[in-house]
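Encode chain A's predicted structure.
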Amino acid sequence: TAFCPPDNADPLGPLIWEDIHCQLECDENSLRIADQYDLVDWECAEGYAGKPVRTCEINADCERDFVYRGCFPLMPCMEPQLSSPADRCMYDTSNCTAVAPGESCEIRCLPPYVGDPIEAFCPVANTDPSVELFWVAPGCRLPCADPDPLPSGYVSTRDCGLQCAAGFVGAAEKTCELLAEDVNTTDENGCVTGSILHCNLRLEFSGCDALVPCAPLVINDTCRLNESECWSVAPGETCQISCRAPFVGAGAVASCPTDNIDPTREP
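Encoded structure for chain A:
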């Protein structure tokens, strides 16, 4: 009930009333339903997924009807986004474009990497095209076989593996890695137009240094001492320093270290 106050003196004053609760009811026999809903089983129709919700609403023309929400079309997953050049040189995702919900694809190792492929999956009820495939990176590795022949200074045996060859000293090491980088491309004006992925295998041997004779022994007092035997002393060898005539006396022995790799080192 709305009423006018008994002492009202304002001709524009509103009536005083309490809001009433009006409940909207829709016709249960209405068959107006969107394609993405299955009215019989009250679930999302084939090709859609989600949690269907039905509400009774009224439109701008004051017409009542059920409004259905919550079902969205199934969408393929996005292929794996490999941001780093190293990953793009290692993994082959070419089979994983537009994988449908509930389907899978195979991710492989790109040569020269080797390893077992793995499967990447798209969720059964995926409705978000920005969702990436679910996958775990395969165990890709570089085999890096030794070249034949090996670089000078290195030998490889079945029992000991990579070693320094005779005439060399140190600890032999082999470094094998794939250098990955995006290299910018430019036009005739030098403006950057894009980039190209470069994947270059680097195989490097290090740690073995050649043994070399010691440098000629330098003696300032050449009138008294004879150092001619010490001009080229091999590693591990010795030489005799003697007195020049008319000087007499016991000589001295100089030696070159057995592991000498410094050609400027004197005995």
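The chain has one helix and 16 strands.
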